[in-house]
Amino acid sequence: MAEREMSRTKETFEPRISLITLGVRDVEASAQFYERMGFERSKSSSTDSVVFIPLRGIVLGLFSRTALAEDAGLDASPPTPFGGITIAYNTRSEEEVDRLFELMVSVGGKPLKAPQKVFWGGYSCYVADPDGHPWEIAFNPHWEVSPDGAMRLPAG
């Protein structure tokens, strides 16, 4: 992209994400899975057909996979089971990775990869929610997770 176009884009587009919506088979079953993990749905914004879960600075949405695909003008049947997205939760320690892996599995998550040391120098695992959306739970010794849970990448 040309430098002038990038400058114009930065003036009109804030680089942030407001909402991540997961297309799910059963909105209520998925909402209950996330609630068992400690998330709370917004009672004022959620309905029977869509659940919104406020997080720190972002919202997680749960919506019928078919309805979400229709809304976006897409085919609801992907060519592969993996939809090309993961949700990541970064922790402050390897022990926290282990604890959250056990918690997610105990509330109905499917273990995909057990906690282990990884090639980039950290420690991580993967657990799928009831609809197969993979969550990476990771400790990255090169990144900081602030006391309020915000992610801080190294300067540079």
From TrEMBL:
Pfam families: Glyoxalase (PF00903). Transmembrane segments: none annotated. InterPro entries: Glyas_Bleomycin-R_OHBP_Dase, Glyas_Fos-R_dOase_dom, VOC_core. The lineage of its organism: Bacteria, Pseudomonadati, Pseudomonadota, Alphaproteobacteria, Rhodobacterales. CDD domains: VOC_like. Gene3D superfamilies: 2,3-Dihydroxybiphenyl 1,2-Dioxygenase, domain 1. It comes from Agaricicola taiwanensis. Residues 16-140 form the VOC domain. This is VOC domain-containing protein.
